[in-house]
Design a protein that fits this description.
The complex is a heterotrimer of chains A (about 350), B (about 300) and C (about 350).
Chain A lengths: L7 E16 L5 E17 L3 E5 L6 H8 L7 E6 L2 E2 L5 H8 L2 E4 L13 H11 L5 H14 L16 H13 L5 E5 L7 H18 L2 E6 L2 H7 L2 E6 L2 E7 H6 L4 H9 L5 H6 L1 E3 L37 E2 L5 E2 L4 H6 L9 E3 L2
Parallel strand pairs in A: 3-8, 3-9, 6-7, 7-8
Antiparallel strand pairs in A: 1-2, 1-4, 4-5, 9-10, 10-13, 11-14, 12-13
Chain B lengths: L2 H10 L6 H10 L2 H18 L1 H4 L34 H37 L1 H16 L2 H12 L3 H28 L2 H9 L3 H13 L1 H23 L12 H8 L8 H28 L6
Chain C lengths: L3 E11 L4 E12 L4 E5 L6 H9 L6 E10 L2 E2 L5 H7 L4 E4 L13 H12 L4 H14 L5 H4 L9 H13 L5 E5 L7 H18 L2 E6 L2 H7 L2 E6 L2 E7 H6 L4 H9 L39 H5 L5 E3 L1 E6 L26
Parallel strand pairs in C: 3-8, 3-9, 6-7, 7-8
Antiparallel strand pairs in C: 1-2, 1-4, 4-5, 9-10, 10-12, 11-12
Classes of the chains: A alpha/beta (about 350), B mainly alpha (about 300), C alpha/beta (about 350).
Chain lengths: ~350, ~300, ~350
């Protein structure tokens, strides 16, 4: 865990990102929206790692890309070091590009197959007029060394490298401009287990060395818990809980967080055998057609007949300081409400 | 040994290879593709060295005028004589020049215009894309040959006109292909990564999107050249080819002798075979390119 | 008498440039009703092993050695017509990607009844009724209506359930599940694993679960084999494997995976180096280049699986992991997850 320097680096306020659904014979008409992100607010302090976790369709990738203005927000504000960047034009964003960077999930598609490694790392330097020619190449070699790759890699092409190596090339590229914030979108999900650990350790070392702030987006809770200081859990476009990483595991307050934690397999047969699992029923609803009221109510093992299907709960601070979006969080905490029997299962 | 050193060692074992070199390697090992290349190279050589290869001129009368029963193949005239007493072999050889020229120029014309339109549509999107694509749809709705006939009616008969007409009919194919290809590339992670680094506009298109979007077009170009040759032959067959009489264009040779099929088969078979072989050669190259550029598409 | 006995299986893939030794001498037994986990990273040969067993290797693959004895018959030596009687009937398989493993142009009902009518000799009506019953067993709601739906009308998790229904339709003796939940979200994964465990128990099937996820085998398999570079490097009852991993690779895997229930954040200890490139000829132990315990012997002589600690724990290693290096991780004690703590 890094020591948090204090001072907000990024703040997101009520962010909404809707993607229009178009259909029509000759001209496309706007018939609806996929509400990928539907009112998300959080802040990241300098030097901190905020984990953003959730399953498919929850909107976490969209949040990451919108922060970098690769998508445009439909509503809401994005504040970077206090400045509102949500409505800046792409041209105005140029100056800020160097301060916030992204690492992508798929090492096989995030590097231009026709660019040599040297070129793709030094490209940002050339575009922003920082250096060119030999100086740029020297910097590229320096960056490759930082991520543990040989200098000779500059002459090679991405397809000559393994997945883990490609991820490191992508990392070197993102460090070229000395960013303050790195949005890591599932950076280790596509890697083999033994390589994942290398990458996670590398990310942590680099954070120390270069004073980086991370928004770590992933679906693997164990990895997120390991690397993050705080974790935000997303479900269907909204944040349902935010807590300190250790506390999220020790005492989750939102039913979805509990189910999510319960579903993660643990590499320990003794633990697995004695666990009592919360099993959710049914599938993830589509973000194009989210359930009414609390989005989780269709699968919630603690669902109550009032409020859950009509009122969308606010993300609020509970009595013990935890932040969760559930009407009955306090009752569940106190044991006054229990999970419906059909939602539980014990390993045989 | 550190991780970096171990990996450096691993990399040294093979020489650096760009994607193009890998693709070339695969192409060379594809037997059918190599056959295609050999065929086309021979054809091109025949076309270039026609005066040296053909024993007679294409318009030269070397035998008797015999419209009802022209002489068949013999030791002296490998492909026989035609109704005007001309050596068929020489005409076929000189015909290679015309067919290849027309095929290549038409395809090149269609490719360049289609490329620009497709790039504009794919990159800008919005109403630019809508207008261009609907125009392409309209063009595609008309059968290519009919469109070409209409254009010839407009432009008049002649070698240049036929190249323009056939070329125009190939534009929509390239435009659609490139626009689709660009759309696909635009959504890829590496383009998103480039944008997050600050790459915009022209550089994004020329350095990142286009080089990766062009691959399908290269394949299509060879196939379109083949159809262009057929289309030109077809137009000549219909009597809409270049107006000069006696031009040794394969399609025209077919047209002039269609009625003599039973009596003078050699007058139809040889030009016909020449068309088939050229088209086959180009198709083999096209398929070979497709497989070597994207080996996953192998069936 | 084991139900299935694989002896010294070797599979190669020939490409233009090289020969890839995907499986390099794999042997194991499977008893009726046993759940076996095969764990390994990508490229270790775990999937290829099962494909070879059923005779459905891709064109470039060949079995170069070994036997696969199922009920005393060597499946590798039997003509395809006989093998087709076994596939889907006695030994069934489910695959990783629910998007592509179902035929998109046939209704789900049609795909299930196809197997029933072929292997179980049912007529159309009987097969239909059975198909609905099967969908019910895998807990697909409104099975009677769903039977007419096409695969694209189901979600990923539902499609996997359909696959499972198809697989158990003929009451196979062995079910091979190749990464059945890798492509699914974690809450869906938990559902699917639960259904799988239930059905395996109900049908008394043997299960071979192939995965890269140590957590999944920990919760599902009685016995686990760890695979690296085409061979098994360790084989043990699951609790023994996790408590006392004797092969450095197994140890390395356990130490490099972050545990959700760790009491304190432990620095991950990754296995150095990169996974093996399968084309090179392997001299000695395949794991030696990455192994901290490697000796000269490791680099020159290939270790075979031998018994260690007990009759049912096998390891292929010249320098098995010693007691002092065993993983010792402090965990947060399991809470009752039905009620908040």
């Amino acid at each position: 865990m890094t020591i948090v320097d204090g001072g907000e680096l990024l703040r997101v306020e009520d962010l909404k990102v809707y993607f229009p659904i178009k259909s029509g014979l000759v001209f496309d008409r706007h018939v609806g929206d996929v509400k990928a992100v539907d009112g998300v607010s959080f802040e990241i302090m300098k030097g901190e790692t905020l984990g953003l976790v959730g399953e498919s369709g929850c909107g976490k990738t969209t949040v990451g890309r919108t922060i970098l203005r690769l998508y445009d927000p439909t509503e809401g504000r994005i504040l970077f070091e206090g400045d509102d960047i949500s409505s800046l034009s792409q041209k105005q964003m140029q100056k800020l590009r160097g301060r916030m960077q992204m690492i992508f999930q798929d090492p096989y598609s995030s590097l231009n197959p026709r660019q040599s490694v040297g070129n793709l790392i030094s490209e940002p330097l050339k575009i922003h007029g920082i250096s060119s020619g030999d100086k740029a190449r020297a910097r590229a070699e320096e960056l490759l060394e930082i991520v543990g790759l040989p200098k000779s890699a500059t002459a090679r092409y991405p397809h000559e490298f393994s997945g883990g190596q490609r991820q490191r090339i992508g990392l070197a590229r993102s460090l070229a401009l000395n960013p303050d914030l790195i949005v890591a979108d599932e950076p280790v999900s596509a890697l083999d287990v033994s390589i994942q650990a290398q990458m996670i350790n590398l990310l942590e070392e680099l954070q120390e060395e270069f004073d980086l702030t991370y928004l770590f987006i992933a679906h693997d809770l164990a990895v997120v818990r390991h690397i993050s200081d705080r974790v935000a859990v997303m479900y269907l476009g909204k944040i349902v809980e935010v807590a300190n990483a250790d506390e999220l595991y020790a005492s989750p307050r939102h039913p979805y967080t509990m189910a999510l934690l319960s579903a993660v397999p643990i590499p320990d047969p003794m633990v697995e055998e004695s666990r009592e699992r919360i099993l959710l029923k049914g599938d993830l609803p589509s973000p194009a057609n989210p359930p009414s009221g609390c989005r989780f109510h269709t699968r919630c093992p603690f669902r109550q007949p009032e409020r859950c299907d009509t009122e969308d709960p606010e993300l609020r601070t509970l009595a013990d300081g935890h932040v969760a979006a559930c009407h009955y969080a306090e009752e569940i905490m106190a044991g006054r409400i229990r999970a419906h029997e059909s939602g539980k299962a014990r390993a045989s | 040994m550190s991780l970096a050193e171990a990996e450096a060692q691993e990399l040294h074992l093979e020489r650096p290879s760009s994607l193009s070199r890998d693709a070339l390697d695969r192409f060379i090992h594809n037997k059918a593709a190599v056959v295609g290349v050999v065929v086309m190279v021979l054809l091109v050589l025949i076309a270039i060295f026609a005066p040296l290869i053909a024993p007679f001129g294409p318009q030269e009368q070397v035998g008797p005028l015999d419209s009802s029963n022209p002489a068949g193949p013999s030791a002296e005239h490998w492909m026989g004589l035609d109704e005007q007493g001309r050596d068929v072999f020489s005409r076929v050889v000189y015909g290679a020049r015309l067919s290849l020229l027309v095929g290549l120029v038409s395809a090149a014309f269609g490719l360049s215009v289609g490329l620009v339109l497709g790039a504009l549509a794919g990159y800008f999107g919005g109403w630019v894309e809508t207008i261009i694509m609907r125009l392409m749809d309209i063009m595609l709705a008309i059968p290519a040959l009919l469109l070409a006939i209409g254009l010839i009616a407009l432009l008049g008969r002649g070698l240049v006109q036929i190249m323009i007409a056939v070329g125009i009919t190939t534009i929509p194919v390239f435009a659609r292909l490139l626009r689709g290809s660009i759309l696909a590339q635009r959504e890829s992670d590496y383009v998103l990564a480039a944008r997050s680094l600050g790459v915009r506009g022209r550089r994004l298109l020329t350095v990142h999107i286009l080089p990766n979007a062009l691959a399908p077009l290269i394949v299509q170009a060879t196939l379109v050249t083949a159809t262009a040759i057929i289309d030109v032959a077809g137009l000549s067959f219909l009597g809409l080819g270049p107006a000069e009489p006696g031009l040794p264009e394969w399609g025209k040779m077919l047209a002039d002798n269609a009625t003599r099929l039973d009596r003078a088969t050699h007058l139809v078979i040889f030009p016909g075979a020449a068309i088939v072989i050229s088209v086959l050669g180009l198709n083999l190259i096209g398929d070979g390119l497709r497989e070597s550029i994207d080996p996953k598409m192998r069936s | 008498m084991p139900l299935l006995s694989v002896r010294d299986l070797a599979v190669q893939f020939k490409t233009r440039k090289s020969t890839v030794r995907a499986v390099n001498g794999v042997s194991f037994d499977l008893d009726a009703g046993e759940t076996l986990g095969i764990v390994g990273e990508s490229g270790c040969g775990k999937s290829v092993t099962s494909l070879a067993m059923l005779g459905i290797l891709p064109k470039a693959g060949r079995v170069t050695h070994g036997e696969v004895l199922f009920e005393d018959v060597d499946l590798l030596k039997v003509p395809d017509s006989q093998l087709r009687q076994v596939r889907g009937n006695d030994i069934a398989m489910i695959f990783q990607d629910p998007m592509t493993s179902l035929n998109p142009v046939l209704t789900v009902g049609r795909q299930i009844t196809e197997a029933l009518r072929k292997h179980m000799d049912m007529n159309k009506d009987e097969a239909n009724k059975e198909a609905i019953a099967l969908l019910d067993r895998v807990e697909i709601p409104a099975a009677k209506d769903r039977i007419e739906d096409y695969p694209h009308q189901f979600s990923g998790g539902m499609r996997q359930r359909v696959m499972i229904a198809m697989a158990i339709s003929c009451h196979p003796k062995i079910l091979i599940a190749d990464e059945p939940t890798t492509a699914l979200d974690v809450t869906i994964q938990a559902q699917i694993l639960e259904v799988l465990k239930q059905l395996v128990a109900e049908e008394n099937m043997a299960l071979i679960l192939i995965t890269h996820d140590l957590g999944v085998v920990a919760g599902t398999c009685e016995r686990t084999n760890v695979m690296y570079a085409g061979r098994f490097v360790e084989s043990a009852p699951t609790p023994k494997l996790f408590a006392k991993p004797r092969h450095p690779y197994t140890l390395g895997l356990l130490k490099s995976v972050p545990r959700l229930d760790a009491a304190r954040k432990e620095k991950l200890q990754p296995i150095g180096g990169t996974p093996l490139s399968m084309t090179s000829e392997i001299e000695g132990c395949a794991f030696a280049p990455r192994c901290i315990y490697a000796t000269e012997e490791s680099r020159t002589k290939t270790p075979e699986l031998r018994r260690i600690d007990s009759d049912d724990h096998l390891v292929a290693c010249w320098n098995p992991v010693q007691e002092e290096d065993m993983p010792r991780i402090e965990i947060v004690a399991a809470r009752d997850e039905g009620v908040a703590g």
